[in-house]
C-alpha cells in the first residue's frame, strides 16, 4: 500500500469521519484512496453498493481544489450531487438537463473556487473551451465514473468516452482515477489501455457475497426440479430465472398449480401487469417471481432468499448480477443453477444466428465459454467466479464444490498437450481452433497456417474435440490460460499454465460419470 505524508493521512482520516460520517473503510476502499492520493493512475472495480463513490470523493476533498467527475447520465450526476450537498459538500453538475442560466451561475461559482466536485458529461468536458477554462483552475483530481463505457469490449460502449483518452496528456499532473462496477478482466485491460495508455494500478474488490451459498445440479427434469426446489423453501421471497417468456409462463403456472404464490415477469406482459407483479413482490414476503432477464434492474428487495437459474445465463457477468439480487440483507441465501449441455448448445446457436459482426460473436462465444467453465469447475465456485473479475479468493467452504468435492482425475498430461499446442500456434487462437488442431482436423485454415505439420498435430485424436474444448475451458477457468481481450479471446499461457507445462503443477478434471475412457487415452499417450 502507498505511504502518505502524515498531514495528508490526517486530513483523509478527519474527512472520512467528519464529512462522510464513517469510522472505517469498507474492504478495498482504503487501497484505492491511498493510491489516488499518492498520484498513482488507478482503476477501481467494485460492484454496485460496495462504496465506489467514496474512493474518489474522499481523495478529492483531501486534495482540495476543484475535482472533475465524469459521468454518462444526468440522473446519476444529480443523485450524487444531491447526496454530497446533504453532507455539506460543495458539489455541482453542469449538464444539458438544466436551464442555461443555472449552468452559467454554477460555472461562476466554479471559477470563483467555491466548488469542490464538478460533475460533467464527457462530451461537455472535452470541448476546447471547457478544457481551457479548467486549465486556469487548481485541479485536485479527475475521476471517470462508469469507466467501462470506454471499452468496446464492455456492454455499454459510448463513443464520447473514447475522447477521455486524451485527459492524461492534457492534465499530466492531475491524478486520474477510473471506477466501474462491471468489468471483467478483458474490459479492465481495455480501460487501462484506452484511458491510461497502458499503465495503471487495478484494484478489484467487494465482489464476494459470502452469505450466498453457490450451488448447481445437473438439469434433468426442470419442471420437477424447480417445483421441488421452491417447495423446499416455503413462504420466502425467491426469484426463478428462465430463458424465454414461454418458459416463464409454463413455470409460473406449474408453481401456482402446486400451491406456490408465483408470479410471471417478462417483456411480453403489459407495463401495468409488470408493475403490479413487481409491486406485489416488493410488498409481500413469500412471492416467487418467475422471470426473464427483464426482471431485476434496480429492484431493491433486501430479503430475497434464493435465485434459482433454471437455464444458464450467457455470461458470468449476467450470472453474477442476477445472483446478487439474493441476500442483500446479509442473511444466508442461495444461488442455485440447473446446468445442461443442451442449454449451452442453444445459447451457442443464438450467438451464431445473431445479426452482429464476427468479432462481436467471438466475444459473446468467449463469454459463454467462461460460464461453461464455471459450471464444469472442479475447484471452488466462488474462487472461479471472483477470479473472473480479477479478485483473488481462497476456497470458500460455502459452495457445492467445497462442501462436496467432485471426483477428479489427473489430466496433467492432456493439459500439457493443449498448452503446448496453444504455444506452438503462437497463443493466437481460441478453444475451438485449438481443439481442431489437437484432434487432427485438416481444415482449410489449419492447413493454410501449416498447423497440420506441428509435431503435436492430432496427438489428441483419441478423444472428441468437445472433450478438448471442455479441458481448455477449465484451463481458462483455473487461470492456466488467459483469454486476451485485445485479440478476441485468443488463449495465452499464464505463469500458472507454464508450470503445468513444465510439470511442476498438476491439473485435474471432473471424473466422467460414464464408462471411463482411460485405457484408450493412456495407450495413445
Ligand atoms: P457504489 O457507488 O459502489 O454503488 P456507493 O458509493 O453508493 O456505492 O455506496 C453504497 C453505500 O455504502 C452508501 O450508502 C454509502 O454511504 C455506504 N458506504 C460507503 N463507504 C462506506 C464506509 N466506509 N462505511 C460505511 N458505509 C459506507
Ligand atoms: Zn467454495
Automatic annotation (TrEMBL):
Keywords: ATP-binding, DNA damage, DNA recombination, DNA repair, DNA-binding, Helicase, Hydrolase, Isomerase, Metal-binding, Nucleotide-binding, Zinc
Gene3D superfamilies for the chain: HRDC domain, P-loop containing nucleotide triphosphate hydrolases, Winged helix-like DNA-binding domain superfamily/Winged helix DNA-binding domain
EC number: 5.6.2.4
Coiled coil, from the record: none
Xref: InterPro entries: DEAD/DEAH_box_helicase_dom, DNA_helicase_ATP-dep_RecQ, DNA_helicase_ATP-dep_RecQ_bac, Helicase_ATP-bd, Helicase_C-like, HRDC-like_sf, HRDC_dom, HRDC_dom_sf
Domain Helicase ATP-binding: 33-201
Keyword ATP-binding: yes
One annotated GO molecular function: helicase activity
Catalytic activity of the protein: Couples ATP hydrolysis with the unwinding of duplex DNA by translocating in the 3'-5' direction
Cofactor needs: Zn(2+); Mg(2+)
Zinc is among the record's keywords: yes
PROSITE patterns attached to this UniProt entry: HELICASE_ATP_BIND_1, HELICASE_CTER, HRDC
Domain Helicase C-terminal: 225-371
NCBIfam families, alphabetized: recQ, recQ_fam
Cross-referenced PANTHER family: ATP-DEPENDENT DNA HELICASE Q1, DNA HELICASE RECQ FAMILY MEMBER
Similarity comment: family membership: Belongs to the helicase family. RecQ subfamily.
Protein name: DNA helicase RecQ
Gene this chain is encoded by: recQ
